[in-house]
Amino acid sequence: AQKVTQAQTEISVVEKEDVTLDCVYETRDTTYYLFWYKQPPSGELVFLIRRNSFDEQNEISGRYSWNFQKSTSSFNFTITASQVVDSAVYFCAYSGAGSYQLTFGKGTKLSVIP
Amino acid sequence: DADVTQTPRNRITKTGKRIMLECSQTKGHDRMYWYRQDPGLGLRLIYYSFDVKDINKGEISDGYSVSRQAQAKFSLSLESAIPNQTALYFCATKPGTGLNTEAFFGQGTRLTVV
């Protein structure tokens, strides 16, 4: 069965520091999809990014960047120059081809201290 | 209005009571899901449905039942609520085609069983 591991349970950084959230997955699928979601204190789940297994290009969106490496089965998320509004729980998720389900990691709670 | 709407948003109920959580969507998606979130455990799949005639158990279906009344409506029932069902519940939708699409989540229902 597929498994998603977010080893960092909680991280605290001071505002303007860079922070990387780790995500490691286990799968035997050759085709699969990876996602990141943000859950701010208000509780809703906000979609951030998806990546398919054939696309190892890193992606940057403003202060956010994602590093996907199939060789290490990792899909890490970096926030540059963190801000207080980045404080949230971040979830990494996996979906295998033919599965149509999302398997979530346990989440990493990020606290950005002013 | 939200594309995926959950009602109620908050509910306190007593042990042994029957309770229904409702989800409706305006996205026209075929696939609907119910997840529960517990602190430190991430989101776990309870039930999912690919259309009104297709209902499937997820990882933690014991103690729950669902009904897909229409393409747009998917309800989750707790027949006899117990305190360890206290959690944040999310409904989600996905299109019926395309494996690489993200799931769209409702705003969550916070359920407390006392």
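qc> Chain B has no helices and eleven strands.
qc> done
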